[in-house]
Amino acid sequence: MTLFSSIQTANNALLAAQLGLQVTGNNIANANTPGYVRERLVLVPGPTQTYGNLLLGTGVKVDSVQQVTDRFLEERLRNAGSDLANSQAQQNTYVQLESLIGELSDTDLSTALTSFFNSIQDILNQPDSAAVRNLAVLQGKTLTDNIRQLDARVREIRQDVNNQVIASADDINHALSEVARLNVQIVKAEGGDTSASDAIGLRDRRTAVLNDLAQLIDIKSVEQPTGDVTVFAGGEYLVAAGSYREVTALASTDRGLAIAEIRLKETDSPITAASGKLAGLIRSRDEVLGGFLDGLDNFARALMYEFNKLHAGGQGLEGYSSLESEFAVDDLGAALDQAGLKFTPSNGSFSVQVLNTQTGLSTTTDIRVDLNGLDDDTSLADLAAALDAIDGISATITPSRRLRLEADTSFVKFSFAGDTSGALAALGINTFFTGAHASDIGISREIRTSPGKFAASGGGIAEDTDVAAQLATLLTAPISSQNDQSLALLYDRITGDVTQGAAVTKSVAEGFEVFQQTLEGQYLSVTGVNLDEEAVRMIAYQRAFQASARVIATINELLEVLINL
Amino acid sequence: MAGVYPVPTTRTSDLLNQTRLLAQLQSDELEILRYQSQISTGRRLAAPSDDAPAALRAQSLQRLLELKAQAQTNLRASQSYLDATDTAVADVATTLSSIRATALGVSDSSSSDAAREAAATEVRRAIEQLVSVGNQNFRGRYLFAGSRTTTVPFSLDGNLVTYHGNEGSISSFVDLALEQATNVSGSEIFGAFSPGVRGTVDLNPILTRDTLLTDLQGGQGITPGSIAISDGTRTSVIDITSAETIGDVADLIAANPPAGRSIIARVTTTGLVLDIDDAGGGNLTVREVGAGTTAAELGILNTLGTGTGPITGRDLDPILRLTTRLADILGARAAAYIDSPGRNNNLILEANQLGAAENGVTLQFVDDGLLQAAPGLNPGNEFATYQASATAARAALALSGFGNNLILTAASTGTSLNDVRIELADAGAIGNAATADYNTVTKTLTLGIDSTGATDVQALLDAIAAEGTFTASYDASDPNDGGFNAAALVQTGDIGVVSGNTGNSGGDANTIFVHIDPGATTANQVIAALTANATISARFTARLDPRDGATIASTGNGFVDLDAGATTAGGSGEPLDLTSGLLVHNGGQAYTLDLSGAVTVEDLLNALNGSPASLAADIDPAGDRIRIRSRLSGADFQIGENGGTTATQLGVRSLTHDTNLADLNHGRGVSTAAGIDFSIQRRDGTVLDIDLDGASTIGDILDLINNRADNQDPATRVVARLAQSGNGIELIDGNATPTATLQVTRSFQSFAAIDLGLVAQGETTTSAASTSPDTITAGDVNPLEVAGVFNSLGRLHDALLANDVPAIERALALLDQDFDRVNAARAEVGARGQSLETLHGRLEDENIQLQGSLSDEIDTDLAEAISNLTARQAALEASLQLTARTFQLSLLDFL
């Protein structure tokens, strides 16, 4: 051993201290950089050398610069991020949906619904007034407008959510290509597993990209010994080393709306996202919004059909001299319950009353709607023939396969009564509501132009108010085809589902947020820069530098002594 | 509220400090914002999901409030109508009491004509005034028109007032599901209808396949449910909830028999008949499913079983509908069900007319080939004959050789000698002779002939005649046989080869024989044969049973079974006489109502309602008869026959056998005296003294006359009956050799004959007119009238002018009844108003309560919100201070 070797040892220590200051400085500089993982200089004692029978240290050796992090925590944090993004996407949808429904306000659908049925009660108060009936028709129009608007707006939101799904394909591809690119760079920088140091900036960047990707879909990333990560999603690998598989948004149709599904471009196999924003969007689109649209449609159909069934068996202040059914059948010869009608009639009967306005007398004819499925079930052609056989009216089938009824003379008016089959409502004869879905519900043109045709009477034209009394209580009356639920209950269930879903999603999102923040706290406590700590390190390195310099000075003095000999 | 997450214990970093502090500040400020909006909007919930259970409760509370608000509106409307009604009714009571006072003042004989005339004028004015009250219109509604609120309810013509409204009620929902009538019909207050002429006749509509289930059991309907049908081993549960008509029920049963079996379910004129195929054996039972009552209500519940025999359901008693055909009431048509085994071949033979007369007609299939020596008919040539008297069985014996074909005819008529077999046997060497022997056990007629073939046909004829069960003669039906040859021999080769059989050829009286080719004649051909016979087709119609058809096309193509005969049964009643119509007297006018065009009950009602006789005809609420009332106040009203039986059949005569004598003459009754009340002089000069003591109805009087021991000789008797034309009692003396005039003379002390209309007021005797010397027709003494204000006033007016004191008294008594009615109606209106008042108060209370509950659910508790806000503010301030301080602390400061 020589003095020079001691100088060298001290020199190593100087270098180590300088590097230490460099790393500390970098840490301090990045104290506020999000996603930055603090670094640590790894020092090891220098190798020993033999001096006689002594083994002497050769000072300090700088081993590597490493990131202080916890890869498992990182992965868990990413997963928590996926879950949070998932629930937040749903929560956003619910917030929009809730504000659209606007329940608990004075302008919501339930108020329109009650107002409509209340207006029918007014008919009971003044059955003779056509103006009051007109008011009921207008309230009905408000109700149907509201239903249609709600349906349309929810469809808009759904379209918007779908657009986000489509856009997320590009985001995923972008992230995947970035990860693949960084994989290559990191491996290059770190030289595979030959270097103990981490490729600082690149790794931070990759972690950030992976986090972004995890926000979109729930991924699983596995770091290989060489430093690159392999990314999986739903059993399919997306990134391996420097290559990645592109995804694409495939269009299909659901509930009358174009929807997109994320698939692998090369194999066309779907990516099943269980979490992440994409999963949240898809659930929002298909279950939250789709389910709401289904519920609204079911409610609107129940409202239309049940109301129309009663209305079709009633008579207004005036009778009909001609009318054409709203709905067409697919097959004139097919039984009415299999003829492709929007609503399905059942086995039953109804009556047709033909009023001679000159004598004031009416004749009733019972029309059987035989749909017992056993023999010779009634088709539209049969029905037309039976109606045509009634004195005073003629029934024809139009080229568009609709039923047309016409009074033979101007002083004959006809009306309908006691429909137990629902055939009139299903064909759209003497109905109040038109349309077959929430998206096209409306008020019959016949009633709109002459509100006197609102069928309040059950015993003949302008005779009584039996039908109106039934209609007025329909809102809260149990409906057998809906498992004895009333219309009010059906509506409450739709909004209740949204409210409950929103409340649940909100609390789930809050839970995930707390969890994610807890994990992030843990993560930051490991990876974050603590300025005080760095300051301590800084002083330590400074002192080490000063001490090493002093060692060199001392050796220098010793050398001087030797030289001056 | 953002959650609070734990502080990691090992280490901290500046970034962690920052994030945590920022999160803390965010959460505080967010909460402050939330309280701020709660306080400023007054709503605890910004969105329903903030507190889902509360929001859902609030939603239903809101609806309830909205509905209750409407109920209040309804209530106010109802109240206004009732108030208006009350005011109007108050006027009626006042007017009536002033009229009553006036009339009482002039009701004694001492009042002057002028005073009475003045009173009559006052009555007349009162009528006009009350009509205008009755026609009062409030808010566009005629208050007293029943549910016909747009019709002017009363019209005045002379003193007669016609009511055009009905008895319907207009009701509003004054609370959820609480419907209350807001009107009192004119008939309820003023009295506008006469008592209904509602006879004793249940019109008894028959059951058809199209009868609705809801119309069965007197309108009670059938509880929807399931029934279980079992053949003893396998059970089929049939859900009939989708059935609309009884035909549907039959079809559903036929379509779902126990596995492997077939059931024919038919609808007869009264009920269901279920018949299981005989081949599978077993025991047919029909049971309820669970605790249901459907099978019992359908009348086919039979838990003991009927073997393979049919289950015949009980009478399902459908009610009358407007669309019920008049041909389907008042009894049933006789019918026979001709059931051949297999499908596509069952027939129904139904009488064209109602009535029991067509019962008991038997249809028999006859094998045409057995009836003559010539070959039987070919399919397509079937024919039918109707035999009113009993027919003897016969059989042909086509012997070999020429001139010897025989036809044997039973010596006695009827079916006893059907299926008798005629055989030839070897009687040994008996020469030209024959033996005949009839075995009643085996039903075989054995003819013995000479073993060498020496017996000639004459010997055989003689032997048959000698035996006596049958007579035989030559059968000339086969021209190839060449004409009778008494000496033609009976060949021994025929023994055991040639035979005859009487089959179904014998019949009781009233039998339809259909000659068929067994195994080749189809049901359709049988129908053609029955239709071709004019005698039969005039009385019966044959049709296929579509239930038996495998497909529509194949129905009727099946071969009928030779032994599938049947006898008509179930015919009852008699057809409704629609040709003569009704004779209605109303308002002093006679109207003949022509019902000849009526097909349905509604046509009948329309003919009545549409006539100018001011009638209100409808189906009685009980659903089994029609009811005719008068809408015309102030006049007498009667319904009688117009020469036929229509009124009696429909049960709408205003005077019937059951009419109480006490009700006659507007309730004045028939005043009888002790001893003889009147006497009838027959055309043979005999005088019948009639004492009405003990008679309480019109029928009793008729019986008194008709059942007298000295009035039974058909040649001389006088018959009392209800008039053929109009109403009243009619005496008929059809004596062909009259020696005296038919007369009714009242006894001196009794007014009974006058009260019965037999003798005119002020007379003592009525003689038959010379134009119809055999008849005395009494006037109708049971006039009906509207029980009501306008009737009473009209009568009073007329009585005052006529100075008819008893009539004035009667009118005053009627007015008293009107008083009661008006007061009752007024009390009713008052009670309804009262209950509405109570309800109003309750609704107000409820409203406040509901508002309170709603407020609890969704409104901000200001005190709580403000104190929370203050607490948060303090927390935020502390956070801010802390942030500032901790960020000041750094080691770097001390270097």
Instruction: Give the strand content of chain B.
Output: 15-25%
How many strands, what sense, and barrel or not for the largest sheet of chain A? 4 strands, antiparallel
Average residue pLDDT of chain B: 87
The SS-based structural class of chain A is: alpha+beta
Oligomer designation = heterodimer
Tell me the number of strands of chain A. Answer: 18
**Shape call of chain B:** flat
Radius of gyration of chain A: 40 Å
Number of strands of chain B: 40
Count interface residues per chain for the largest interface.
A-B, 89 and 86 residues
Q: Which segments of chain A are poorly predicted (pLDDT under 50) over 5 or more consecutive residues?
A: none
Which class best fits the helix and strand makeup of chain B?
alpha+beta
Question: Helix content range of the residues of chain B, please?
Answer: 25-40%
Order of strands across the biggest sheet of chain B?
16-24-15-26
Count of helices of chain A?
12
Apparent shape of chain A: rod-shaped
Report what the structure shows:
The complex is a heterodimer of chains A (565) and B (895). Chain A contains 12 helices and 18 strands. Chain A is of the alpha+beta class and 565 residues long. In chain A, strand 7 (236-240) and strand 8 form a beta hairpin. In chain A, helix 3 (109-125) packs antiparallel against helix 10. Chain B is an alpha+beta fold and 895 residues long. In chain B, 31% of the residues lie in helices and 20% in strands. Chain B has 17 helices and 40 strands. In chain B, strands 16-24-15-26 form a 4-stranded mixed β-sheet, covered by helices on one side. The model of chain B has no long low-confidence stretch (mean pLDDT 87). Chains A and B meet through helix 2, helix 3, strand 12, strand 13 and helix 11 of A and helix 1, helix 2, strand 5, helix 5 and helix 10 of B.
